[in-house]
Amino acid sequence: MxxxxxxxxxxxxxxxxxxxxxxxxxVDGFAVVDDGxxxxxxxxxxxxxxxxxxxxxxxxxxxxxxxVDNREILMNAAKDLNAEWVLCCxxxxxxxTPFLEKINSVQDEADxxxxxxxxxxxxxxxxxxxxxxxxxxxxxxxxxxxxxxxxEISYADRPRRALHTPWLPAGLRDQHxxxxxxxxxxxxxSLRAEDRRRRYEKFKRIDPDNKWQPIGYDHLIQEDGVRxxxxxxxxxxxxxxxxxxxxx
Length: 248
Fold this sequence. Notes:
Mean pLDDT: 93
Distance between the termini: 38 Å
CATH architecture: Alpha-Beta Complex
Number of helices: 6
Strand order of the largest sheet: 3-2-1-4-8-6-9-5
Structural class: alpha/beta
Number of domains: 1
Strand content: 15-25%
Oligomer: single chain
Radius of gyration: 17 Å
Number of strands: 10
Order of helices and strands: EHEHEHEEHHEEEEHE
CATH class: Alpha Beta
Helix content: 10-25%
């Protein structure tokens, strides 16, 4: 198995079908942790034809309570499945199509330059699926979402109830292993004002003192000075993989 897509999700019946549709053609399988869903998410997972591993939690704790544990379960599953690479993606994220179409070539290039951890520029979609929040180059977030499966899987350097845990196991966080690319992943959790408010309220509820993100969460609902930019031709993602109500 060359590429395994890994994800932990909860109550994602709205977004999960599109997530699987988005990646199915480009990966060899999926490993999924269902973090105590109460909706139709378990059924959607079971129906996925490329499902290689699934784990369901019957204990429902607050959002992200098992974030570190879930990452560890998924990475150990990847190792047990003899996957070479993992590709991480949330249900509300979409990779640009040009990357997915040459994912194997990108992996080959990473091996060639000796940097087995590939980073992506995260752009937040706002107001439209064709426009993103244009920030200064120095402020664009890079997430390392594709990497070779290491021999040792450990998140021991992170508290078990930490938030915003990197997908990377501890042994892969060496700067010499990281390749920051120009490839994009689009995030549509902040598409509409009500989405931004909902996300803000969630994190303020589970991290009221900004313990896990010292800069806080006010930026999630910032409206002043926001400049939007259209997605350039050739940098699009698959619009058919998003919920129909977002297309209007």
